[in-house]
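QA checklist item 7 of 12: single-chain prediction sanity check.
[x] sequence parsed
[x] length recorded as 833
[x] structure emitted
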Amino acid sequence: MAKQKKSSKVQKIVMTIFALPLIGIMTACICGIALAFYIGMCVVPNSDIDVSSYSRDLAKTTVIYAKNANTGEYEVYETLEGDVNRQWVELSEIPKNLQNAVVAIEDKRFYSHHGVDWIRTLGAVKGFATGNDSAGGGSTITQQLIKNLTGNSDKSVKRKINEIFQAITLEKNLGDTAKDQILEMYLNTIPYGNRAAGIKVAAMTYFGKELSELSLAECAVLASIPNAPTRYNPFRNPDNVKERQKTVLFAMKEQGFIDESTYQEALNTELVYKSDDYKQQSDQPYSWFTEAIIQELTEDLQKRQNISHDLARSRVMSGGLKIYATIDQNVQRIMDDVFMNDANFPRARKNGAAPQGAMVVTDKQGNIAGIVGGRGKKEGSLLTNRATMTARQPGSAIKPLAVYGPAMDDGKITPYSAVTDMPFKVYNDKAWPRNDNRRYQGQLVLRNAVARSINTVAVRVLDMISPKRSYAFLHDTLGFTHLNPNADIDYAPLALGGTNGGTTVREMAAGYTIFANNGKYSGSRTYFKVEDSEGNVIIDYTTPTEIRAFKNEKTAYYMLDVLKEVTNSGTGRKATINGIETAGKTGTTTSKRDVWFCGLTPYYVGATWFGYDQSYNLEGISGNTALSLWTTVMRRIHEGLPSARFDMGDDSNFVRASYCEDSGLAPVGACSDDARGSRISTGRFWKGDEPQEECNLHKYVRICRDTGLIATRRCWRTGTVAKLDLTRKFPIDFSPSIEDAPYTYSGDNEPVGSGDVTVSGGYYGVCSGRHSFFSRDDDDDDDENGETGGENSGEESGGENTGGAEETQPPAESEPSAPPAEDSGGEEPDPEN
């Protein structure tokens, strides 16, 4: 029995020994099949790379054209010099010593392999697996060329596999002249630092010589630099580059390119660098507009042609392109004049820094007419453009785009809707939000609330559509790309403009075009058309693609109505232009770090920002500088233009109707007898939007003529007026109290809001004064009806504002009583006069 068990164990061991290799072979086969399938399906189809499309046009001047306003013809506006300087040279013009030096140090089997050096590749794989970086990289010159042209420097295995097959395919496609073509392209495209791209410019940059004048020692230096242009910068690190040069020369000797005597001679040759002999700097820096074109077109080409950012930038700067810009040279000239004049800015500095400004002006379709990315004279090229590159919180300037526009388009509001100005919720044990004017006014007509930039109303309207709907409109419809989806889908970022990701001045200007362009949106652009060096149109925005941002025609007209009120009587009332109608919205961020004005006329749309580059507030600077800059620029731009008013739509689609300012509903008789005077106004409604339901807030009540509040049995001089049957609830008491609370009372209507604290209605509208028939100081009846009286006199509680109340004797029926002391909720507000 024991022998059988032992035999069974031996059999199992033998089977395991034979099974393991079989399992390994099967696993390797499966992995091999999977790898082959991946290569066949994903790699090989994408391995063909057209190098001619990458290398062409990299040494030609790009020209920007602008239309002459007088002739209507395009003329040269500006020419571009590459941010890297490149001059293409044929391989025959490159010294053989230089070619050999590059091959010796970069790819010693260059002339014998077919795109991939498998010996080096396997060595690199082994080094990667063992963590031995000293094994070096496995890329050949062909692979490096592909990486440089495509800009794909990802270190993933997938990228390396793709690169291997691209290199093999490239050499196969180029045929017998593959090596010469590849080496020529490599030497003309590789970066050498100090803005030098390509071997010809590198020779001039570092030695002030033509290629034919280079010594062997200098050729070895130039072959050294591309490995690490910063580390081997001859101007800054001559010792480093000398050590690298020795390595290059030794490799050349080892591989038979030079003999021992030539090697020694080159080692001992003195290297003289001439950093001042070759500098190509423009006399004038690029304009803000030109830099915006460079930025936009680089991104455009990168996406359209699926190329790297660096290659796209090279094609923009030195690809021989013809760019037909949207710039209006008169508009741009005016903007430059205004922003270069320090008199248009406040005299303020913090820690030596002056506040900055930026502005973008477009036409209705988003064609940019002018850009200014900073104040003062522009001192250099390719600087940070605050109009297009810097994202900042937009403050209340975002409300029309994020809140009111979408809400009107969804049918939640009209310009004449009534919305309550009071806190929305409790946040950190405080009533939130607060208004800039530190007031809560109660019922407000929406267009008036926008004109006064009331934060609470914006939050309440946002709640009608949800933050998700608002974010989707900004991000998906208007293309606001800097928003943070993890933090900005919330009330404060969208209703108050406290975004985490921020917005740019250009995004804001483009967004406001929907109000000028009947709700249609096509983004913004700095060029109409781009042609390549052979005259082929590669980008055409002459007729930009438009989407209907607002699904309802009425929305843009409604929003114009609202935004006109801002410049007529609200926070933007200084934005006036003689004979030209204006509309817009101001914006101020927390602690007044940024101020904005985004506005429009029948001719142009403009967005302006003012603030510090640093996180300083604008304390001590009065007014809104962004608004004053906008107004100064726009007044000059519109000089000589015919008087114009906004297109407010076909009158046949609208109807004028009355509405109650407190309920937004159709007025009843009581609306005209409000204690404050008539609360009836007339609005221009899209047909079908006019109020049908009658006002249910205004009701007749008896008031004390001494205080203007709801009369009690102690009030002898009374009258009848209309007040709001409006009880508002909130979780906590807050200050200041709601200003229209004295004109409210608790009647038959259900309370609005939530919480245990009554903030209007209840005792707020009830007279707590001490009256007698003969003397107001008579306290005989203080306790007759169980009233608290309180410390406030009738004058403190409301004064003599009794409207047109008719004097009567005190009513026989029971009147509303004052509240218990514990519900007082703090200081009682004065009524609005």
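[x] summary fact logged: DSSP finds 23 helices and 24 strands in the chain.
[ ] second reviewer sign-off
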